[in-house]
Design a protein that fits this description.
The complex is a heterodimer of chains A (about 475) and B (about 375). Chain A has helices at about 1-15, 45-60, 70-75, 90-95, 145-155, 185-195, 205-215, 230-240, 265-270, 275-300, 310-320, 325-345, 355-370, 375-390, 395-435; strands spanning about 20-30, 30-35, 80-85, 100-105, 110-115, 160-165, 170-180, 225, 240-245, 250-255, 435, 440. With about 475 residues, chain A is of the alpha+beta class. Chain A has a five-stranded antiparallel β-sheet with strand order 1-2-4-5-3, sandwiched between helices. In chain A, strands 6-7-9-10-8 form a five-stranded antiparallel β-sheet, sandwiched between helices. A two-stranded antiparallel ribbon of chain A has the order 11-12. Chain A starts with a helix and ends in a 43-residue tail after the last strand. In chain A, about 35% of the residues are buried. Chain B has twelve helices and 14 strands. Chain B is about 35% helix and about 30% strand. Chain B has a five-stranded mixed β-sheet. A four-stranded mixed β-sheet of chain B has the order 11-12-13-14, with helices on both faces. Classes of the chains: A alpha+beta (about 475), B alpha/beta (about 375). At the A-B interface, α11 and α15 of A face α1 of B. Chain A: Belongs to the GerABKA family. Chain A: Keywords: Membrane, Transmembrane, Transmembrane helix. Chain A: It comes from Paenibacillus shirakamiensis.
């Protein structure tokens, strides 16, 4: 008897100062049962209808022959799956994860009911990766809903979901998802090892995982692709990539990553191949623009002014007349202002969001030029660059470009085109030598895989893409029969 | 090792460039036109530089509209022994550094050209920022006078001249052509300007206006002779790069006349070895439309077309022969037959090289083939 009391006492003790834990006692045939749960994270309706009600019915019934515990054990009492455990600390851990414990007091038996129901929002439209044509739904914070969205798209037993728990305190559920037979087993093994090795207090966003997994690899370029679109994840899995979903965050990670996969939008595959190809070329062009335009402008106007067509030179010269700063200073002022405005625009609460755009438009667009502090062509250059960095479909890559723009700008303003070229080459060399999860970052450009060019700078119509991208997979290459 | 390689990459930045080579746009004067004359004292040179004044083109306004009032360009003249000396004197007076990266037009004064432009060409050859595809033309008198022309459509005189040359209505001789010709000791031809005054609309005083009156023939680096406009046209055609041209002819005792606009003009030069020395062949090829016709005889189209072609051929051939005769007179191998020969029959060239000028003048054998295609004889809208 002492031991029985100990189990319940131990639980109470472990849950001391947790006032939101509910202890519901039942007296059935003179035996006491205790139902323990946290009302905010369990499904109360199920508690009431499927557990409490059943127990009350049992208490009211005259059938005293059959022992309640044996009914519990053979699963004929509750319509819910339950499992039996012995260890009170384990039970407490389960409790805080949203399970209900039924404690049969005169037996040292604890029954666990998985009734977890967290607060979650409904599946909504994608906010950050917009498409015009194509699926609109996006992941939410609840991992089961996210898995459901994925399973809705891929209905095949080869679709594998490996479950992990990350975080000592948060016990966040993480799933690695992939399609067996499409992806490289090395990648799966590496991701598996990477997630398993993570030992942190908590993982609140998916970047907690990605940062832990890319230990010692310093590069401004993203090595993981973030997406909030189930269709992007599904398409990537079909290409042989591996996805990582985490509970509590609406974004998923995709590995491996190549530069060109970050320049693709899911819209590319929903639009006609001609317009998609054109848009893709425009996008690559603007990605380059967003990196080097300000530095090129500064370098050419201060070092290589012979390169500018005469008429354009006159226009620029006329605009630069009476500007007190050097072109480099001017560019830095404008770029910094722009970065500041952009950051303010992102963080500002929506109701006052207008303020930033008004001030930004007035400060950058009008006043700075009229006051003669910066020249009009510089404003154009900075604005074009600003727009260009938003054309990159993956925000992380845009961030890398924004960051690298500044060293380029400074070297362009101090050493001219030669400096810009050399630094660009260093960046290119870095990109070429970069590998994420065994995939070269610049494939299929370096190393050259001509077969894959069908889906890089342009997109050939779907019947033409008979093979999977070699960047991500090396087996089961054919994705449709040869015609 | 990695770090070492990284430094190796950055090394050229230190050696090839640096902040010290930085010049802001508003610290430079961009020379758009250069006008070279003989100086007042013999043996000297007078250089005039035309450059835009960006502060007169205030920003926000279209370039060229006289923003701050007054001319939007400046002309600076200096006399000195050599071209670089003159430039140094000019630069000493300016607040900004001279930049020749945008010089597109060089006008050479008549007397200076006759004395030889070797000095100028040598400087152009050595100045690294100078673009050798700048045009070179010859003024009828002093080049400085040309710089006084009133740019009605363009921003500054240099631009007017450049756009005129770029119409390809006659020679489009560039500095590099002149450099090549003088180096191999042959000749070249440039536009020869004409200079007159017209009534400027909106202004009371007469304005100076510049046109093209023909060609200037250089032998080596010296101006030796002139060509009339018709002959210049034929010669420019043979050199290549001639733009649209209108040719008119008359027949039936000046009662009937027709004009043809040739829009594609091509030329080919070749040399063949014959028993009595090299035979040079010039093939002129053009396609054009009949744009004007007056014919009291009311000939049929089928009759007019061959007639027009025949008359045009005769006219062009006559111009061509006249032009080559002129160049022979001054021993200026403008068509660079010598180079053709050197390219195709180097041994023969070795023999003729020493007395090429006299050979060109006296013994040159050449043929002119003309192929004309006149279309749309009955085009009426």
């Amino acid at each position: 008897m002492r031991k029985r009391g100990l189990a319940i006492e131990q639980i109470r003790d472990l849950l001391k100062d947790s006032d939101d834990v509910e202890y519901q006692e039942f007296l059935i045939h003179k035996q006491s049962y205790m139902l323990i749960y946290i009302p905010s994270i369990v499904d109360m309706e199920v508690i009431h209808k499927q557990i409490a009600y059943v127990l009350v019915q049992e208490a009211l019934s005259d059938d005293k022959d059959q022992d309640l515990v044996s009914k519990l054990n053979n699963g004929s009492l509750f319509p819910l799956p339950n499992n039996q455990i012995q260890d009170p600390p384990e039970a407490v851990n389960a409790l805080v994860e949203g399970k209900a414990i039924l404690c049969a007091e005169h037996f040292n038996q604890l029954y666990l009911f998985d009734l977890v129901k967290y607060q979650k929002r409904a599946v909504s439209e994608s906010q950050n990766e917009l498409v015009v044509i194509g699926p609109q739904e996006a992941f939410i914070e609840d991992i089961n809903s996210n898995l459901s969205l994925l399973r809705h798209k891929i209905k095949h037993p080869a679709f594998k979901t490996i479950r992990y728990e990350v975080g000592k305190y948060t016990k966040t559920i993480v799933y690695m998802v992939y399609i067996e037979g499409l992806c490289k087993p090395e990648v799966v093994a590496e991701v598996d090892k990477g997630i398993a090795e993570i030992s942190i207090d908590g993982a609140l966003g998916i970047s907690y995982l990605s940062e832990q997994m890319k230990k010692g690899n310093h590069t401004p370029f993203p090595q993981f692709q973030y997406t909030e679109r189930p269709d992007s994840v599904a398409a990537s899995l079909l290409e042989g990539r591996v996805g990582i979903l985490q509970d509590g965050t609406p974004s998923a990670l995709l590995v491996p990553v190549t530069l060109f996969s970050l320049l693709q939008s899911s819209e590319d595959y929903y639009q006609s191949y001609m317009s998609a190809s054109w848009i893709r070329i425009v996008r690559i062009f603007f990605a380059i623009i967003s990196l080097i335009l300000p530095s090129l402008y500064v370098a050419i106007t201060t070092f290589q002014s012979e390169m500018i067509p005469s008429d354009l030179l006159l226009t620029i010269a006329a605009a630069r007349e009476n500007i007190p700063f050097s072109a480099l200073t001017e560019a830095l002022i404008m770029e910094l202002t722009f970065e500041g405005l952009r950051e303010a625009g992102t963080r500002i609460p929506k109701p006052v969001g207008q303020t930033v755009s008004i001030i930004g438009a007035i400060v950058i667009g009008q006043a700075a030029v009229q006051a003669g502090i910066v020249s009009a062509p510089m404003v154009i250059v900075v604005s074009v660059t600003g727009i260009a960095s938003y054309i990159i479909p993956h925000f992380e890559l845009g961030l890398a470009m924004r960051l690298l723009r500044f060293p380029l700008l400074i070297i362009g303003g101090t050493t001219g085109l030669i400096g810009v070229f050399i630094l660009t080459f260093i960046i290119f060399g870095h990109l070429v030598s970069l590998k994420t999860f065994g995939a070269p970052y610049m494939q299929p450009l370096a190393p050259i895989v001509l077969q894959d060019w069908k889906d890089v700078f342009f997109r050939v119509p779907s019947p033409g893409m008979t093979k999977r991208s070699s960047s991500f997979t090396n087996r089961n290459i054919r994705r449709q029969p040869k015609k | 090792m990695r770090r070492f390689r990284f430094i190796l990459f950055l090394l050229p930045i230190v050696f090839l460039t640096g902040c010290w080579s930085k010049v802001e746009i508003d610290e430079q004067t961009f020379v758009f036109g250069m006008y070279v004359d003989q100086g007042k004292e013999p043996g000297t040179v007078e250089v005039t530089l035309g450059s835009p004044l960006p502060n007169r083109l205030s920003s926000g306004q279209q370039a060229g509209s006289n923003g701050g009032g007054g001319k939007s360009f400046s002309m600076t003249t200096k006399n000195a022994l050599t071209v670089p000396d003159a430039l140094r004197l000019i630069e000493a007076e300016l607040t900004r550094r001279l930049n020749f990266g945008h010089t597109k037009m060089i006008v050479v004064g008549h007397t200076y050209a006759q004395a030889g432009i070797h000095d100028l060409l040598d400087w152009l050859d050595r100045e690294p920022s100078f673009h050798s595809n700048a045009f070179i033309i010859t003024a009828p008198g002093s080049a400085k006078d040309i710089s006084q022309l009133v740019p009605l459509y363009e921003q500054m005189p240099g631009e007017v001249l450049r756009k005129m040359v770029m119409q390809r209505s006659l020679f489009t001789t560039r500095v590099k052509d002149a450099l090549i010709s003088t180096t191999i000791g042959e000749g070249f031809a440039t536009d020869l300007l004409s200079f007159n005054t017209i009534q400027d609309t909106g202004q009371n005083e007469d304005s100076k206006w510049v046109g093209v009156q023909g060609g200037a023939l250089y032998e080596g680096d010296k101006l030796k002779g002139q060509l009339m406009i018709e002959q210049s046209r034929a010669l420019a055609w043979a050199i290549g790069n001639l733009g649209r041209q209108v040719y008119s002819i008359t027949w039936n005792g000046d009662k009937s006349r027709a004009s043809v606009l040739f829009h594609t003009l091509k030329a080919k030069k070749d040399v063949k070895m014959t028993a009595d020395g090299p035979l040079f062949e010039i093939s002129l090829d053009a396609t054009g439309d009949l744009i004007y016709k007056r014919d009291p005889q009311n000939l049929k189209d089928l009759e007019i077309n061959p007639l027009v072609v025949k008359l045009l051929k005769a006219k062009i051939e006559k111009d061509m022969h006249g032009a080559i005769r002129e160049t022979q007179k001054v021993e200026a191998d403008v068509l660079q037959f010598g180079m053709n020969l050197d390219w195709k029959y180097p041994k023969e060239w070795e023999k003729l090289k020493k007395h090429w000028s006299s050979y060109y003048k006296n013994d040159l054998k050449y043929q002119v083939h003309i192929d004309l295609n006149v279309k749309n004889t009955n085009n009426q809208t």
